[in-house]
Design a protein that fits this description.
Blueprint (H helix, E strand, L loop, with lengths): L1 E5 H14 L5 E5 L6 H11 L14 E4 L6 E5 L14 H4 L3 E5 L13 E7 L5 E6 L1
Parallel strand pairs: 2-5, 2-6, 4-5
Antiparallel strand pairs: 1-7, 3-4, 6-7
Helix pairs in contact: 1-2
Length: 134
C-alpha cells in the first residue's frame, strides 16, 4: 500500500514496522538519493530500542545496533561498484539479527531475500514522501 507521509508520519510508520520485525527478517529499502531511506531506518532503529542512534553506513557499509530483541544490522550498498563486492559482506552473520538493506539492488544475488520491502520516493512537496510497504 502506498501512502504520502510527512516526516513525523514516516517515523511513525517505521515504528510500526519495527514492532513487527524479528531476528531473521530482512527489510529492503529502495528509493532515489534523499528519498528518506536513512530517515526511515533511524526511526525504526530508535523504535526497536537500540542503545545508540542510527547513522548512515555509506562509508562503513554496515552498522550494528544492539536492541532488546536482538541486533539490527543496517547495510548501505550504495557505494558498491559491482555486485561481486557484496560477496565480501558476511551475510550469514548478519542474518542473526534484523537486517535493513539500503540499495539492495546493488548487492544483486548476494542480498538475502526480503521479508519486507519499503519503497520511498520524492513528491512535489519536499516535506512529503511517497512510501510503499510490502
Amino acid at each position: 500500500m502506498t501512502a504520502l507521509l510527512d516526516e513525523p508520519a514516516l517515523e511513525a510508520r517505521a515504528a510500526e514496522l519495527a514492532a513487527e520485525l524479528a531476528p531473521g527478517d530482512v527489510v529492503w529499502l529502495s528509493g532515489d538519493l534523499g528519498a528518506g531511506k536513512t530517515t526511515f531506518v533511524r526511526a525504526l532503529v530508535r523504535a526497536a530500542g537500540a542503545a545508540r542512534p542510527a547513522t548512515s553506513p555509506t562509508y562503513a557499509l554496515v552498522h550494528r545496533y544492539a536492541a532488546p530483541r536482538g541486533p539490527l544490522y543496517h547495510v548501505d550498498c550504495y557505494r558498491l561498484k559491482h555486485e561481486a563486492e557484496a560477496w565480501d559482506l558476511d551475510w550469514d552473520a548478519l542474518s542473526e539479527g534484523i537486517l535493513l538493506i539500503e540499495w539492495p539492488e546493488k548487492a544483486g544475488r548476494w542480498a538475502p531475500r526480503p521479508t519486507h520491502r519499503v519503497r520511498l520516493a520524492h513528491t512535489p512537496d519536499p516535506d512529503v514522501r511517497s512510501v510503499e510497504l510490502e
